[in-house]
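In practice, a research group might receive sequence data for several interacting partners and want a quick structural hypothesis before committing to experiments. The following worked case mirrors that situation: the sequences arrive first, and a predicted assembly follows.
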Amino acid sequence: MQDNSVPGDLRGAVVSCHLERPLDDAAWARFDALRRRFEVLALIRPPDAAHGEDEGRWLERARTLPLLGLHTHWTSPTHARPSGDADPADRVRSECAWMRERGLEPRWFCGGGWYTDDGVRAAVQQLGLVDCTPRDGLPRDGVLPTTHSLGQLARSVLWRLPPYVHAYFHDYDLSDVRRRLALTSSLQVLRMRRAAYDASSPIRKSHGTR
Ligand SMILES: [Zn+2]
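A structural hypothesis for the assembly, expressed as tokens:
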């Protein structure tokens, strides 16, 4: 597994959230509370000025996120995939540049609606982002595939999960009480699994730590 793509504590079990509504106060508050309890990659959709979204408040919130990634929507806040003639790779480059100009350094990328193409993949690689858009396979250079939805994770039992799990959810999933409870119990299971993984790690054993 790539050391630069997975924060130390996430090895064996990665969790990411697609922040679709970072300007929605209730959605933000719920995500903010959750990410303080569990390590979650925050794949955030930049503000869309063409749709009147407030850049100032967005920046305030994004700057508090320690594990920051880019989630690109090509058409609108609610329409993720590309629909016009514009080159999708240009949008990825310009959103990443916009964030960097404001002192934010996204480390991961996930295409909205799981969209990608050769140009987008090349741009993501050139920008040095780790791509979470692929839906299967193992972590490899510059790629951290997203393997499980919230529902799949909740239905899986611990011993049936493969060695590598990358589960994702949306910020709006947290507004539903049942989904929120399912998610937090799944995250607790993943945390236990990570602890077991750490305890069995030959490197940790040889160093006698934990
Ligand atoms: Zn999205």
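Before designing any experiment, note the following. Helices lie at 25-37, 55-62, 88-101, 118-126, 150-155, 177-200, 202-207. Residues 18, 20, 45, 71, 73, 80, 112 surround zinc ion (CB under 6 Å).
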